Amino acid sequence: MIRTLVIEDRNRDFQSMKDSLEEHGFELTHARNSEEAERYIKEQGVPNFCIMDIHLRTSEKDGIDTAKELLAQHNFPLVFLTNHYDEQEYSKRVQQLGVPLQCFLPKNLLDNSAVFTDRIMNILSDFDYWETMPVPRILALQSRKIGVSKRGGCDFYSRDDILYFEGNGDKTLIHFTDNRTTQSMSGNIGFIAFQVRKVFQNFIMIGSSYCINLEKISHLEGTTLFFESERNATHFISIPKDKVSDLKSELHILRPKKRR
Length: 260
Description:
Elements: E1 2-7, H1 11-21, E2 26-31, H2 34-44, E3 49-53, H3 63-73, E4 78-82, H4 87-94, E5 104-106, H5 113-126, E6 138-142, E7 145-150, E8 153-158, E9 162-168, E10 171-176, E11 183-186, H6 189-199, E12 203-206, E13 210-213, E14 217-221, E15 224-227, E16 236-238, H7 244-254
Parallel strand pairs: 1-2, 1-3, 3-4, 4-5
Antiparallel strand pairs: 6-7, 7-8, 9-10, 9-13, 10-11, 12-13, 14-15, 15-16
Helix pairs in contact: 1-5
């Protein structure tokens, strides 16, 4: 899970963020002011990510001053939310924080859960925060390769060698076509699936445990999915019944029936 500290004085806005992000692997904790935020960090440790409301009615400090104090002592990626965005007013104040202006989001994004989630994911994937977050950053480094960054370097995998990613608690397993030992990587399957999908459209999330390569599917029997693999190895997984029709639709788009 991506431990996320939300510093927001409105309960309704916090609940909107929670509803949008928790299904994507975020674990949200609510702090209403700088004092509660500092108490959380002291008791629970530094968060992996922070969402900060600029206008905090319950605190003498606004969000930028609060962020300045927190970031002076700790290191974590941060996004600001505001109803009144004024680039000229805020740009000078945030230069010292090292927070890019694209990390300022208008609060009306909360009215559209999908758009808000997409913007948060894009911000996290655009900046190299993998040193402070427990999730690897997945990049398209070549036309048919996936690179997974890690401390001290990067591992490269050919897209054609990957059958599917499998969520396993706080780890994600990569299953390959040659049936070799599955590669384990740290990170939440939902976040990883989102990034892989952004890079390669032929990958899709199925249920809450799998991100599969549609091009490697051999056939579907009931709720059992079989994959093409080398050395006569058998790869199959069971998928939720309610996802069968979605999967068939995706496969139809990818492999339209040929006209006779």
